[in-house]
Fold this sequence. Notes:
Elements: H1 16-25, E1 27-31, E2 34-40, E3 49-55, H2 63-80, H3 82-90, E4 95-101, H4 109-134
Amino acid sequence: MAKQFSYGKEEKLKSRKLTEQLFSKGKTFTVFPLKVFYMPVKEELDFPVKAGVGTGSRNFKKAADRNRVKRLLREAYRTEKNALTDYARANQKHVAIFFLYIDKVLPEYTLIKSKMPLAIGKLIKQLHEVAVANT
């Protein structure tokens, strides 16, 4: 069992195949400045939720700025992910998600920290709606 606020290797979205499927076949929604790609996964993963973060090089030319944004996204996800992992475990679901920062301005941590719970809450709601529609 993973520690409550960890974001270890088994939780990270590393599979190229799964990432390509996520961007091509997955669903998306926006909680500005975050764009969330998600896809329920049929096969069993080693962790209920696989998550990735990123930002575009079009918006941030310097790698140091892109790395800072990704670090802030990872930290916000790490502290707010418990509701999502609890939902996935309780319903025996496996989900791949990717958080993309789409604003052109370097964010403050407080902005990312305030938007991440909204994005995760909306994601849980949409996953629940899909589950109800399939039954």
